[in-house]
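QA checklist item 7 of 12: single-chain prediction sanity check.
[x] sequence parsed
[x] length recorded as 540
[x] structure emitted
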Amino acid sequence: MVSSSAMARNYGEKPSTSSMEEDLEIEQSMRNASIIDHQYEPEHHKDYRVLNAFDPADKSTYSDMIHIDVPDTKTLVERSDGVTKYTAYNIHINGWYHGSVRFSNLYEFAEHIKQKFSQKYKGPEFPAKKLFKLDQKAVDDRRQKIAKYFQALVQHPEIARHYLIEKKLLGFQIDSFRATSQYVSLDIYLGNGEKTTIKCLVSDSTLEIMRILAEKLGFNNKDEFIYHFGLFMAKGRNPSAACYSVTPDNFNPLLTRFLRNFEAPFVSLSTANQKYNENGHYNFLCIRKLIWDTRIEESALNDGTFVELMYKQAVQDYKNGHLDPVKEDLECKLKSCMQRNDKIMFLRTCHLLPTYSYEILSPCTCDYPKPGTPCEIKFGRRQIVLTTKDELGTTKQSLFRATRIRVWRITQIVDKVSFQFEYLMAKDTFEWITLETDQSILMSLLLQSIGSEILYEHNNMSIEQQVMKEKQSKGSYVEKTDKLPRDPKKPIIVLKNAVEETDPLGVMEHYHNYNRMLTTISDGIPQRNQAFTDITNDDL
């Protein structure tokens, strides 16, 4: 029998809070559910590959995963004499060019790993040096061996989590960029299109840039700022219109990339605009809120600096029509708050809107309710929302709550990459939902951020508070205690490749087959966590 939550999904309604009896059975459903996956049965697609799969309920997983690809090579000239040529291996991370690295530097890195982790690493050896010059076939063979080495290397969490990986990736990017100046100015746009310029080093990582920005904006608690906001690369929403400058009047960012600490934002932005801009459609850096529940946002309203930054984004989203539809009485209230410059009341009024606090991504194609359905998609409020039209042209919304997603994965058929998530549609029944989009990696990172917030909220509640929340899950209880500052060295969500001995998704079979280096590494040391198994009635 289909639950009321699953039925509501068909009619664009928010699923109601399920009964305690049903919620207590969700964990069992996660283990025993049958799986519906109509469109992507491997036997129907010989080129089908699972590139990455993430299991938010796995206690042994780790966080902040990235995708690495080594698709080809290029010939460069030595900086020392400007004549001698050498082959460099192009590294792409999260779907974007990262840097071109010569073999000797990669070999040096592999030797360092061997010295430090010789007793822990079990896998293919890094390709040996050759005394003679390689032809193109031998170069490609070496590239594939390098890919297999890194693929095996990052399957060892104690190695993949080490700071050396992050440091080396950052170094590879900086060396490849060949900057002409060490000190630069970097423009970062706030939520309303207001430009803030900071002074930094070309080599400053994302975390260092965020700390510099937090200080300039006046945040006393830099860690809280770094946790609640993210640094993104974005572009204008109209691909046919050139965008040479960004102003508050035209600011309506479409996120393209979530910057991580293995990269230098100045270099990433410069490289992207050299390689990927089309018809003057340039990328820019912007700060976006990473708060996915209005209760979390409510607890931050006592900090004027947080209020200022959240207010700017909320007003711009309202002006851009991202909060539509808005009821007449609430719209009058929003306009009144803007006239009085009552920022806190404006945000609290936004909290009453079910359309508030979403990131609207590019339109894509999904297989729900049937394959090939065009849809608009947005992430927010701890859920994914798909907007589609039926045969009669009637608009319908389908809501997928993050706490009912058992696993998500990024797949590829030939050159088409898709984002898939396995959703608890009914009691004991999961269904794979497939989105054909070029933003698969961004979706994965946003979903990780949502899960991170859920875990952080639960980990910072006392046992008494969790019991109170459980008992009052059907009432209006809202946790309003002051949140503890986040320790930046302690990740707060655990996610990994769903590659286990049981291999329920058949991931390992596909991992052995695909011909590109596409894998994951971690930003920091993980903590063992109950992950999504600690969710209470309110969350389900």
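[x] summary fact logged: The chain has a mean pLDDT of 77.
[ ] second reviewer sign-off
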